[in-house]
Amino acid sequence: MRAWTALTSARKGGGPDTGPSPVDRRKTGSKHHLICDGRGTPLKVITTAANVNDVTQTLALVNGIPPVAGRPGRLRRRPDALLGDKGYDSNPNRNALRKLRILPVISRKGCPNIKGTGKLRYVVEQTFALLHHFKRLAVRWERRTELHDAFVCLACSLICWRRLKKSRT
Q1: Engineering a disulfide at 142: which of 25, 83, 148, 155 sits with its beta carbon 3.0 to 4.6 angstroms away?
Q2: Region (Disordered): which ranges (predicted)?
Q3: Selection from 20, 169, 54, 168 nearest residue 46 by Cα
């Protein structure tokens, strides 16, 4: 009987980095924030509670990009432009991105979308689909955030490895 009560009490809390879901407030959940390159290779993923606004994670994603090798010379740390949906619209974020010499391509709230961003936004949505194709990440089962983040890093590594393997053949 004690083992049963321990299991039910372990399920109730949800663990850190969980919050009320915007869809079903009765349940707690978490959300992935993702930044990727133009081909859909994930560069940085952050896990937050489900009720955290997207706009609060913009600079954390940009500052978390690791050095990317490309042409000979110094490794690149920042992109030339940042494409985001209306959830990332904020004047302070736009100004901070411009200070980092990054062009923000973000539609403003209450205005029509920037023409042509749908094709570019598809790359990010495809990367989310690849990430959530790993069933362990589509629904969060781990209570500890560091375990969930480890599975996210492993999934991103597998996505990158598969892309490299495909490009070499």
Answers
A1: 148
A2: 1-32
A3: 54
Tokens linked to 60: 């954390």
In sequence order, which residues have a C-beta less than 8 Å from that of residue 27 and are 6 or more positions away? 20, 21
Phi, psi of 46, deg, nearest 5: -120, 135
Output the pTM of the full model. 0.74
Q: Are 145 and 15 in contact, with CB atoms under 8 Å apart?
A: yes
Q: How would residue 11 be classed by pLDDT, with cut points 50, 70 and 90?
A: very low
Tokens 């100004």 locate to 95
What's the pLDDT score for residue 164?
A: 84
Spell out the domain ranges in the chain: 16-168
- The pairing of strands 42-49 and 81-84 is unpaired
Distance CA 11, CA 24 (A): 17
> What are the structure tokens assigned to 49, written together?
């509670």
CATH 3.30.420 for domain 16-168, yes or no, is yes
